[in-house]
Queue: 2 jobs
Job 1
Amino acid sequence: MAMATFTSFPHLPSILAKPTSLCSYRRFSFVCLSTSSSSTSKTLTPDRSAPRAIPLIIPGILRGPDGKPTLQSTSAAFLHSMTHAKSKPKPKKGNSKIERRKVTTGKDVKESVVSSTPPKYSKAARRFYNEHIKVKSGKPQEGPQRLNKVLATAGVASRRNSDELIFQGKVTINGTVCTSPQTKVDISKDSIYVNGNRLPKRLPPKLYFAVNKPKGYICSCGEEPKSIISLFDEYLKGWHRKHQGIPKPRLFTVGRLDVATTGLIVVTNDGEFAQRLSHPSSQLPKEYIATIHGAVHRRHLIAISEGTIIEGVKCVPDIVEVLPTQGDASRPRLKIVVHEGRNHEVRELVKNAGLELYSLKRLRIGRFRLPSDLRLGKFVELKDSDMKLLEAKS
């Protein structure tokens, strides 16, 4: 049996050292194995006519998104470069660290990721921003709104007077006269004119104030000198200097207090909030201090606690108590808490009991109490926490 013979290649070790060079040596010739001893041998020589830039492809089977196996191929040069590539360290972002903690909730053990990155601002700074700046951004409200609501919010007129302006054809939208108050408009996109004056693209922010109403002031949005809104003249005088491009807000009172009643009243330019707070269905408790002429007996307290009919509705107070006298004050004082919110409710309760009212002061709405350091005729802007107390029923 004849033996196969190979011709030695002095450069073969250098070829094997480069895996990509093997691709150029595709064709080899081998000697024929013959039973004859006289058979001639053929040497193994590379075919130089073959192309030299054929990449080596490695096939593989992977599962696709549908779960079925698919045939995919990967270049050997890509794998070679990935193998010899040096891993680069990730850039550090400050002193942030990620901690993994195990949280046990009942029978389950969950692993939570807690970032220990120091906050950009302090807790006090973030609280100040949320309470004083975030709610006063002055940005236009998103989405279309009713035309009469937009005019009222922009300070043009009250909702009812805005309807009259629209009915009279004094309002145009994108060059067309509009006579329907329910038309939906987007103040940031639509061009709205009222009496030839263009409405600004930005609405004033929502404002909320607590006022210590003095005696003799009325709950009116007009220009009367004794109106509660006149207490804000100095505040609104410099509005355009501090809020450029934003129209002056139209303020009004939430509910009413008699001209002779003092104490807490809320002023805002948010109509939905005012309706929600003042409507009798809200059932918000309101606390009053009633100072009485003459003596108060037990029968008077029983008569007040039994309630009376106001506007066809039986109104019964939640609490009726006699307060201790203050210093040299000889007149008795009653603490009366009601929730109906009917007109002249406390006055009618006292009158029905046969008592004569000397003065009346409101101290609380919901769970928000009139600040003790707020003087008569002064106001304070409400925070988010105060708003929650106003709408709290208990």
Job 2
Amino acid sequence: MAACRSEDAGQDSILEPLCFPERPAGGSGAPGPPPGPSGPCPGEPAVCVFCSESVPPQDRDLLLKHLLLQHKLVIADVKLIADFPKYLLYWKGRFLEQPLTDFCSVIKTNSTGPAEKQEHYFLLCDVLPEDRLLRENLQQKRLERVLEQQQKERDDSSFQRLCMFCSEEFSGNRSSLLNHMAREHSFSIGLPDNIVFCSDFLDALQRKLDNLQCLYCEKTFRDKTTLKDHMRKKSHRRINASNREYDRFYVINYLELGKTWEEVQSEDDRELVDDEDDDWSDWQAHPVCAVCLFCDQQSETMEKIYRHMEEAHGFDLHKLRIDLNLRFYQQVKLVNFIRRQIHQSRCYGCQQSFSCRAAALQHIMAAGHVMKLPDVSAWDQPQYFFPTYENDALLCSLADSDGETDGPVRSEDVPVIAEDISNLRTLKQSSVLKQLLKNTGC
């Protein structure tokens, strides 16, 4: 999640979606969004598509903030763009040739308010065939570079390195060291032919060990002896598969645009399994927890989380729904509005800002603003159709107002964004890997 405070705009701007922790409250908190696979950072800076503002590639979020606040431009799925500087350079040229509205969907905020308070934002995404083609070309070029690098490492006979566990020296091909660690120390990071940027990978693992950090659970210990005993006794001589830091070292993560290695592998597995062998009898759904609007309390039962909010915080969502005759989509916008305000350390009742979330919550309780809502025009806005937290289970429990369940859904309740989907089927059937194999004659 990336959030930034703008003195010019006078409000917070959320650049990427938030997610609640998957485990119950009391854990270490929600992890950040996983980075996409990438090789060494390119040297060219990322330049704004409208002005001369530029940042180093590793400071991409600063430029995204600039585009949002200064130019009202939002780029969708940035983490899936293989070469962000080249992507921006391409669109910089195209925006000089044609108007911005020829390429971007326009999102109007505060649509029901006065004209002077309305703002237009522009969304650039791969629904546009030209954008999709650009992303695929950048992805294919990166894949070609990665495959070339992988082949060099396969053929490299000058590799030389010490084992991380016994300090035995290995020279020649990298496979000798990787096979040794798997065979002698039960530590495997995968088949050598599936790994790229191997030296960088081993450097990253060595740094963790030098910092007395377990490679699997990533806990830190007081000395090397304690760390060694821990990894041996707990069978932690493996890497943490959920750590997205390692994605860039596996070739499979570069194969399909917008897909992780888990998705690619699951598709391959489905092709190998007969339909008659499918057995879902022992499948268990992962429990989804609803999170309180005001604290970290979680519950797998919606009734419990509603009761908790009423008893602990004095907030009764059912009462608000009845008193204000809120339709389903209005309830969605209200929940997202409250989530957004509290995340930004602001009282949703009086709009007073605070230095931290705890101070805002203390004010809300002390001032009796728990059940105080601002004018409906403040929260009944199109931007609050989008959830503040992507995995907000509370949104799934909202009920329709009396008499609305059997009736048709009003058109003004549903946001409609025009999209060019003429080539959607073709886009779904295409992939970078298939195109590359076709070009190479494989």
